[in-house]
Amino acid sequence: MPLADGQPFAVPAPLIDPFGRAITYVRVSVTDRCDFRCTYCMSEDMHFLPKADILSLEELERLCTAFIRLGTRRLRLTGGEPLVRRNIMELVRNLGRHVASGALEELTLTTNGSQLSRYADELRAAGVRRINVSLDTLDPARFQAITRWGRLAQVMEGLEAARQAGLAVKINAVALKGINDGELDEMLVWCGRQGFDLTLIEVMPLGDMDGNGGGAVREEQFLSLRDVRADLEKRWTLLDSNHRTGGPARYVTVQETGQRLGFITPLSHNFCESCNRVRVTCTGTLFMCLGQEDAADLRTPLRAETGDGALVQAIRDAITRKPQGHDFIIDRRRGPAVGRHMSVTGG
Ligand code: SAM
Ligand code: SF4
Asked: Which residues are registered as beta bridge partners of 59?
């Protein structure tokens, strides 16, 4: 509708939650499936969702576009493994148009890297400029033990393809006590040589693994990044940095390598006060907070009508219920703080 001040169309009001935070960052899980079975994420005999429950690529595009119209500036595709979804590049290319038009500041994805040899060039051509690649170790045997089905060499080839395609890479490593805590120095050196930033993530109590495929017990793997940072500071000069990527990581610059090191510390440091993001699962369920159960069904309005009125209203209603923060507690007696797997919510 033309406006009195000459603007051709009314710009919809942005999404502001009850605590005054503008919601400008959306993570969308495009599949619950994966070619790896990381011990902290999935059980070995995962049961995946029936196809009819999963949003089609067209539905995912409509959903993302609705968020972009409501002020989303950054969009991250995740999973499961986003690059194992059939025809995923169709969605990436269509969303990339919003980057080209300036409506979207950034389109990015989090991947295990296994399919990057195949897709790195196409991602870059579609408008993706940087990606997060999850890699917890540089040791092939340890890599296989953590991912169960992964092959380190394949990920390394993928990373090389990403570099050649001109994609900036950030490595995400979950800090696992007794598993990779002895090689963090080596990873810093390696990332420095490759020109990759590194972000360390505290293992989070998501999904019930016990008695379900022999999954790992997370409280035994939990490593406080406060302690990790204190230990690294004995050997490295970590300079505070104001760098922000719109995500939850806090960064330092490693003087010796010149690369950034990020810390995502949901347990030892609460980062909720500046939270600007929400997550949507591959079934169209909107989670307003990673650590809370409250959710909104966006699939029903998506499938109910071809227009987006009901969808937009459902998103707006959900944002009015965004909680102030999460409440993760690692305690085996109480079970997992949140009973769903990271691969369902999207990491
Ligand atoms: N498959 C892709 C990948 O691995 O990058 C994207 C999805 S994965 C669920 C996203 C991120 O969540 C990964 O970096 C993974 O290490 C992390 N993750 C999975 N389970 C986790 C847990 N229990 N605690 C902390 N991080 C977890
Ligand atoms: Fe797959 Fe990523 Fe979960 Fe590992 S962390 S099992 S790669 S979804």
From this structure: none
Token representation of residue 146:
């953590």
Residues 77-98 have pLDDT tens digits of: 999 999 999 999 999 999 999 9
| β-sheet with 295-297: strand ranges across | 238-240, 250-254, 260-264, 197-202, 168-175, 130-134, 106-111, 74-78, 25-29, 277-280, 285-287, 295-297
Could you report the per-residue pLDDT of 183-237, keeping only the tens digit for each?
A: 999 999 999 999 999 999 988 766 554 433 334 546 788 888 999 999 999 999 9
List pLDDT tens digits, range 127-179.
999 999 999 999 999 999 999 999 999 999 999 999 999 999 999 999 999 99
Q: Which atom of ligand 2 is nearest to the CA of 112?
A: 7
DSSP count for the chain of H helices, then E strands: 11, 12
Q: Which atom of ligand 1 is nearest to the CA of 136?
A: 16
Ligand 1 binding pocket, CB closer than 6 Å: 34, 40-41, 78-79, 81, 110-112, 134, 172, 174, 201, 203-204, 206, 342-343, 347
- Dihedral class, residue 260 (left if φ above 0, else alpha if ψ from -120 to 50, else beta): beta
Structure tokens of 312? 């937009």
Ligand positioned closest to the Cα atom of 37:
2
List of domains in the chain? 25-345 (3.20.20.70)
Instruction: Report the candidate in 58, 154, 166, 76 with the shortest Cα–Cα distance to residue 115.
Output: 154
Task: Ligand 1 pocket test: pick from 132, 342, 345 the residue with the most ligand atoms within 8 Å of its Cβ.
Answer: 342
